[in-house]
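Journal club side-thread
Mid-discussion, someone asked how the predicted structure for our own chain would compare to the paper's figures. Pasting it here so we can look after the session.
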Amino acid sequence: MENQIKTALITGATSGIGYELAKLFAQDQYNLIIVARNTDELEHKANEFRQSGVQVTTIAKDLFNKDEVNTLCQEVEALGVQVDVLVNNAGQGLYGEFKDTDIEGELAIINLNINSLVMLTKHFVKQMVQRNDGKILNLASVASKLPGPWQSVYHGTKAFVLSFTEAIRAELAETNITITALMPGATDTDFFNKADMLSSKVVQDKESLDKAADVAKVGYDALMNGDDKVIAGFKNKVQVGMSNLMPDSVVANNMREMQKPAEQEQQQNE
């Protein structure tokens, strides 16, 4: 049974950290079920992953939509494939001060970052419990530890993901199932573009952003080791460590300065 080919299901697998994770699974000869919204992108990436000699199934779904999450679960069931590893990678942010941002956009972010993750975890963890085997990787963030002005809802959703992951892990402590939280910092992906965050100070210095491939490798290794959580990148570990020593109000103010529009910084300095 050790040589049996396993299958990993990865959401948000066509770009960024999810794409890099999918490459790592393919290199280790995991068959893949990759999920994203764009059918063309899915097929393009699937052909790339197949070069590693693995089977790749593409499923186009909009995980902002609860009904499509349910349909995803049903379609995977219909495949008759055992999902050995679930990677809840899909997530998005929304930039701006809460008083100005669109509530519908924020509720959509909650649907994607929290609701879809909980639904997929519920569905597949039940199957893992039945066979007493499986792994789950949830994309949290250093944002889970840091109150985030200019991204208040996003940071709040990631705090939920980390807390949820640690709680479910404790519940499953006596099983052979492990759940790992990956906590990246600011990473060079399309996240900031989708969040309409390109004006933020934190994005201006591209050299300071972590590489998605490096973050994925840290998360992949932690998942395979069965670790509870891992912070990707030394500077992010330092940031979280320092924040643990400060009042939340100070941490929030520091984040407010880091994430505010760069033009505000320039105006203040003039």
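Post-session note: Residues 5 and 17 are 23 Å apart (CA to CA).
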